C-alpha cells in the first residue's frame, strides 16, 4: 500500500469514528464513560432531586392504606406479543383487544400500558434497581404505564404525573418458572440489539405477576434510564416472583448496542432527599363499601317515599 492510499484509509477511518462519536450523543450505557455517572452530561435531569432508583429503608416508610389498585384487561390473552432487544434491555409489548390499564391505589388517574422490561445484574446477588434495606434482588420487572389524559407516552414525559411504573422483584428458586419459560425461550432470538421476536403462546399479564399485590411501596421518582424524567409514580410490590438461576442467566447473554454482553443494566441507587416512601400495608375497601351502603340508603329512602304516597 503506498502512502497516499494509507492516508486515504486513515482519513476514512477517522471519518467513520467521528461519525460514530456524533451519533453517540445521547447514547448511554452502564460502564466507563457511558456509565450512569456520566449520564448528566447529555441528560441534565439525571442529576435531579427526584431520581430513581432509591434504597427503601423499611423502618423509615410511612404506613398507609390506599383503596385497591384496579387492573384492567390483565386476565385477557393478548392478540400478539412482541419481544424486542432495544440495546439496553429486553422489552415486551402487547397487542390487546381492550386497553391494558391500571387505576386506584395511590393513582388519581387512569394509566394505559406501554411496555414492560427487565433490569438485572452481573450475578444473582445484584440486579434490582430499587433496593430494600440495601438488599438487591437478582432482577426487576418494570411495567410502564402513561396517564391517559396525556394521550401518549412521549407527551406524558412532560408532566409530573405522566407515568406510573409497577415494579416487581425476582428471587432465585430451584425450579424453572414455567410461565416465564415462554419469554426466556425466545431470548436467544433477540440476542442482537434491535432484533425482535413474536411470542408463540400469548400470556395474560396477570400470569407474570405474583398473587399477592396488596402490599407495596410507593414514591415519586424518575425513569431509571436517560432522559431520567421525574414523572414517575413508582409502585414496588413486596411479594417477589420466582425464577431459576438458569432463567436469569439467559438475560445476561443478550448483546447491547456496542456488541458487548448485557451482563448488567441496573442503575445505582440515588439520594432519597426530602421524599417520603409510603408503604401500603393493606388495601382499604371502606370507600367502596361506603358508596355501596349510600346507594342502599338512597334506594330505601326512595321506596319509603313511594310507600307513603
Ligand atoms: C456480584 O457482582 C457484583 C457487582 O459486579 C460484585 O461486586 C460481587 O462481588 C459479585 N458477587 C459474587 C458472589 O460474585
Ligand atoms: C443502607 O446503607 C446506607 C448507606 O450506606 C446506611 O446508611 C443504612 O443504614 C443501610 N440500611 C440498612 C437497613 O442496613
Ligand atoms: C401525543 O399527544 C400530543 C398531545 O395530545 C400530540 O400533540 C402528539 O402529536 C401525540 N404524538 C403522537 C406520536 O401520537
From TrEMBL:
Taxonomic lineage from the root: Eukaryota, Metazoa, Ecdysozoa, Arthropoda, Hexapoda
PANTHER family registered for this protein in UniProt: CARBONIC ANHYDRASE, CARBONIC ANHYDRASE 7
Cellular component annotations (GO), alphabetically ordered: cytoplasm
SMART domains (alphabetical): Carb_anhydrase
Gene Ontology MF terms: carbonate dehydratase activity; zinc ion binding
Positions of transmembrane segments: none
EC number: 4.2.1.1
Residue span(s) of domain Alpha-carbonic anhydrase: 26-281
Listed name of the protein: carbonic anhydrase
Family from the record: Belongs to the alpha-carbonic anhydrase family.
Signal sequence, renumbered to the chain: 1-23
Keyword annotations of the record: Glycoprotein, Metal-binding, Signal, Zinc
UniProt xrefs under InterPro entries: CA_dom, CA_dom_sf, Carbonic_anhydrase_a-class
Enzyme class: lyase
Superkingdom per UniProt: Eukaryota
Pfam families (UniProt xref): Carb_anhydrase (PF00194)
Amino acid at each position: 500500500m503506498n502512502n497516499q492510499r494509507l492516508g486515504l484509509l486513515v482519513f476514512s477511518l477517522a471519518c467513520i469514528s467521528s461519525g460514530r462519536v456524533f451519533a453517540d450523543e445521547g447514547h448511554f450505557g452502564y460502564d466507563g464513560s457511558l456509565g450512569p455517572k456520566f449520564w448528566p452530561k447529555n441528560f441534565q435531569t439525571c442529576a435531579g432531586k427526584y431520581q430513581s432508583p432509591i434504597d427503601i429503608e423499611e423502618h423509615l416508610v410511612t404506613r398507609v392504606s390506599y383503596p385497591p389498585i384496579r387492573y384492567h384487561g390483565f386476565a385477557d390473552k393478548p392478540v400478539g406479543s412482541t419481544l424486542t432487544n432495544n440495546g439496553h434491555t429486553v422489552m415486551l409489548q402487547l397487542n390487546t383487544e381492550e386497553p391494558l390499564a391500571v387505576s386506584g391505589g395511590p393513582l388519581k388517574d387512569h394509566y394505559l400500558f406501554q411496555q414492560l422490561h427487565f433490569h438485572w445484574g452481573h450475578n444473582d446477588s445484584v440486579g434490582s434497581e430499587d433496593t430494600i434495606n440495601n438488599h438487591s434482588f437478582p432482577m426487576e420487572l418494570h411495567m410502564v404505564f402513561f396517564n391517559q389524559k396525556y394521550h401518549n407516552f412521549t407527551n406524558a414525559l412532560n408532566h409530573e404525573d405522566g407515568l406510573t411504573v409497577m415494579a416487581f422483584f425476582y428471587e432465585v428458586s430451584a425450579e424453572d418458572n414455567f410461565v416465564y419459560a415462554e419469554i426466556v425461550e425466545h431470548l436467544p432470538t433477540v440476542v442482537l440489539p434491535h432484533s425482535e421476536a413474536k411470542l408463540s403462546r400469548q400470556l395474560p399479564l396477570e400470569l407474570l405477576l405474583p398473587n399477592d399485590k396488596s402490599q407495596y411501596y410507593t414514591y415519586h421518582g424518575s425513569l431509571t434510564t436517560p432522559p431520567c424524567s421525574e414523572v414517575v409514580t413508582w409502585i414496588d410490590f413486596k411479594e417477589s416472583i420466582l425464577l431459576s438461576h438458569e432463567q436469569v442467566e439467559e438475560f445476561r447473554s443478550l448483546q447491547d448496542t456496542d456488541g458487548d454482553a448485557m451482563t448488567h443494566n441496573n442503575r445505582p441507587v440515588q439520594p432519597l432527599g426530602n421524599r417520603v416512601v409510603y408503604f401500603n400495608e393493606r388495601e382499604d375497601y371502606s370507600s367502596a363499601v361506603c358508596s355501596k351502603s349510600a346507594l342502599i340508603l338512597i334506594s330505601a329512602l326512595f321506596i319509603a317515599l313511594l310507600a307513603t304516597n
